[in-house]
Amino acid sequence: MQETITVVASSDKKNLWKVIGASSLGTLIEWYDFYIFGSLAIVISTKFFPPDNPTAAFLSTLATFAAGFVVRPFGALFFGRLGDIIGRKYTFMVTLLVMGLATCAIGLVPGYETIGFAAPILVLVLRLLQGLALGGEYGGAATYVAEHSEPHKRGFRTSWIQTTATFGLFISLAVIMLTKSSMSAEAFDDWGWRVPFLISSLMVVVSYFIRRNMDESPLFKKAKNEGKTSSNPLKESFGKKYNFKFVLLALFGATMGQGVIWYTGQFYALSFLQNVCHVDFDQTNFIIGAALLAGTGFFVVFGWLSDKIGRKPIMLAGMLLAILTYRPIYDRIYQLTDVTNKHELVDQQRIAEETVVKMYDDGSTATLTKTGDTIKQTVRVGAGTFFSIALLVFIQVLYVTMVYGPIAAFLVEMFPVRIRYTSMSLPYHIGNGIFGGLLPAVATYLVTKAQVANAAVVQTSAAIPHDRPYLAGLWYPIIIAGVSFVIGLCYLKNKNQNVQ
């Protein structure tokens, strides 16, 4: 897949940074739009799904969240083809508008109590539109920035695009917390949760006008002027054995493992704290937000480093570290939040007949609320425990930056200009959208199944219980990342396939 190498370096570095800034801003907004749904998963589960079974409603919400990931490869095919035929700029302007309109519409859908099963159906359709839009956005933005960049600085330049996914999640958490703090808990639960969705419309309008004034990629314009663009990028990418081999290698040797590590280190960490450890909603958002803020700069560090030593060793090292340390990290998080490991103080506060607050010597509290025969426990950890957990999440974010920081440059360089948008988008969005996007739902299901099985064992004493059932969900990312690590180690090359 070698081509004649044409170096197109920007003579105006200021203009190059405008390209990076404008591309990153739009992509950040799309990630914000996409992840605001996951960040509000617990609240959404009570609004759009039948309220009689909270666990089933939450799993249904996660499944709807995952649906947006599942359709991302179809968006990659549809918009990737457009991007290789008509251009990068116009294609990712369309994806921005589709994403923004779908996100705003989710904030306007009436709840289950108002329109019944039409509510989850409408939300699912809008979620699918979000997934299609994101499927076309990332490949376009990464390709656009890479094709403006100097080949020997491509890892550094494209790493700024990589920061947008984490910043998008961070901003979604920040907007939720600011919205929630600006009103009563009752108001937020009633209508305030819609505000973060509606805010998206303002951000999309700003980004659209910025992107409208951008120029087309110089490499694409050159290829188009010379008549070297592809008339059928889908057939050329996936119908030709030689090109399709690189698509499969990119998927199974890199993006599959990168996808599960990305979603474990950020989304599953959030879900684990809220649903397995029962840590307070606001505290979990602060913990994840602090870790993301501290770790995001390392996307650029590892992108820059990949220009020096290559993409492969950094990405594979991130996978290997995650495989070896996930279970110890999550076991430690669980032990830190488990109030049975803490010394309970004599004092306790009864707020109401159904609510009791217990206090512990490390500053943690546990609020027990009885509803019928069910007792719900919510834990607020003390300051020392808070920072310990934030550090453990930060370590996972470092793994994310190692596998994700260099991958845009890695994917761009695997494919020639004429089919680049299409060819790189599909393996990226299968690896992230399917293998990664399914992680919260699959991991939560595995934990729930292990806990139910353990409860049955305790009652019957018929078998040996699961060892630490709260860690059962981690087998999914560990196995997927392990397969990707082995394939990448054996078959990836630590050099550019196409430096144009």
Automatic annotation (TrEMBL):
Q: What InterPro entries would the database entry show?
A: MFS_dom (IPR020846), MFS_sugar_transport-like (IPR005828), MFS_trans_sf (IPR036259), Sugar_transporter_CS (IPR005829)
The record's section on CDD domains has:
MFS_ShiA_like
Top-rank lineage group of the source organism? Bacteria
Print the keywords alphabetically: Cell membrane, Membrane, Transmembrane, Transmembrane helix, Transport
Pfam families registered for this protein in UniProt? Sugar_tr
Q: Does the keyword Cell membrane apply?
A: yes
Output the Gene Ontology terms for molecular function: transmembrane transporter activity
Topology versus the membrane: Multi-pass membrane protein
The membrane-spanning stretches of this chain are 20-44, 56-78, 90-109, 115-139, 160-179, 191-210, 246-265, 285-306, 313-330, 386-414, 426-447, 474-492
Q: Ranges for the Major facilitator superfamily (MFS) profile domain?
A: 19-496
Q: Where does the record place it? A: Cell membrane
Cellular component, GO, one term: plasma membrane
Which PANTHER family does the entry mention? Answer: MAJOR FACILITATOR SUPERFAMILY TRANSPORTER, SHIKIMATE TRANSPORTER
- Name-wise, this protein is Predicted arabinose efflux permease, MFS family
